């Protein structure tokens, strides 16, 4: 895994991160911001500095932010258990993730999941009330690619997409997207992909 060192100087001594169990994906909310730009902004906010552990650029480079063994500042209530990845890009509601950026993100997630035995990848918006990294950011696709497997469920009589979504704690939209469904109609014995 090629990680470009940024050698950032942080304002305060960073606290130790022990055994991360989650990766959280963000966007930079700026189309072209670099690690140094974001570091400067976070320092100007009075924070310790760049709040994420990595920045993945649109051309597929992975830059280091905070050291992997330091607690980040990116997701309230989750910083002490997670690694934060920031995707360079403005707004993944209008902007589409670049092919190179997507590939680099998958590689980085696979590398980190293996290194720390992480089994959970979330988008910021799945944890707190924010739109980050954008409603169209392909979180499901990222998880599928990184973990490279799908859970499946065989539809039983009386099931609805809503009951199945509830059962597996996913959204109906996610189920529809995963299974290429145009409507919520499902049939008994149909095999659905869950993750
Ligand atoms: Zn975020």
Written account of the structure:
- With about 200 residues, the chain is an alpha/beta fold.
- The protein folds into two domains: about 1-150, Lysozyme-like (3-Layer(aba) Sandwich), CATH 3.40.80.10; about 150-195, LysM domain (Membrane-bound Lytic Murein Transglycosylase D, Chain A), CATH 3.10.350.10.
- Helices cover about 25% and strands about 15% of the residues.
- The strands form two sheets. A five-stranded mixed sheet has the order 3-2-4-1-5, with helices on one face. It has a two-stranded antiparallel sheet with strand order 6-7.
- A hairpin with a 5-residue loop joins strand 2 (about 55) and strand 3.
- Helix 2 packs across helix 3 (about 140-145).
- It is elongated and about 60 Å long.
- It binds zinc ion.
- The site of zinc ion (ZN) has 4 residues, from loops.
Topology (elements, then pairings):
Layout: E1 22-27, H1 35-44, E2 54-56, E3 62-64, E4 82-87, H2 99-116, E5 121-123, H3 139-147, E6 152-154, H4 161-168, H5 172-178, E7 191-193
Parallel strand pairs: 1-4, 1-5, 2-4
Antiparallel strand pairs: 2-3, 6-7
Helix pairs in contact: 2-3
Zinc ion is lined by residues 26, 124, 130, 132.
Measured between the Cα atoms of the first and last residue, the distance is: 26 Å
Quick one: how many beta strands?
Answer: 7
What is the mean pLDDT?
A: 92
User: What integer value in Å does the Rg equal?
Assistant: 18 Å
Per CATH, which architecture of the largest domain? 3-Layer(aba) Sandwich
Number of domains: 2
Q: Looking at this structure, what is the CATH superfamily of the largest domain? A: Peptidoglycan recognition protein-like
The coarse silhouette is: elongated
Strand arrangement across the biggest beta sheet? 3-2-4-1-5
Helix content: 25-40%
Percent range for β-strand residues: 5-15%
What are the segments in which pLDDT stays under 50 over at least 5 consecutive residues?
A: none
CATH class of the largest domain: Alpha Beta
Count of alpha and pi helical runs = 5
- Indicate the structural class: alpha/beta
